Please model this.
Amino acid sequence: MVELKNIYFASYALIFTFYGSAVTAVGPIIIYFSKITHQDETYFSFVFLARAIGYLLGGSLIKYLTHLMPYHRLFAILITICGVSLIVSSFNFGFLNLSITLLIAGGTCCMMNILTNLCIFEIFINDRQDYWIQLINLFFGIGGLIGPAFVIYY
Model:
């Protein structure tokens, strides 16, 4: 019989694969966004700067959010916010709107990453947590390879 912690890990691995593909798919879309927004590709470094600032803010904010609710409920809220912001970013044709939605996506992605590591530590409390953390990041890397290839293909 399959243990419950292995089912939890498989679900986190699947989520992290999609998460990795969503985060890395933004890079190949720059040419498409530059045509829509009528901006030069060099201006899109500000979009990635906004996403990096979101990562910093998310990393600072997660400390306070983990005290408000259980990890799994917070993770569900964050993945919903991240998914909605990434979907909205594909429909926003303004440069400022794109920067704001990727700032939100960056913050929630950072919080999800930290929260997943905390959840892995809780799930595998009596096992080797370092092995499982590296394995979950491997799934992020696999998603990171799939995302840009999928975007370029379509």
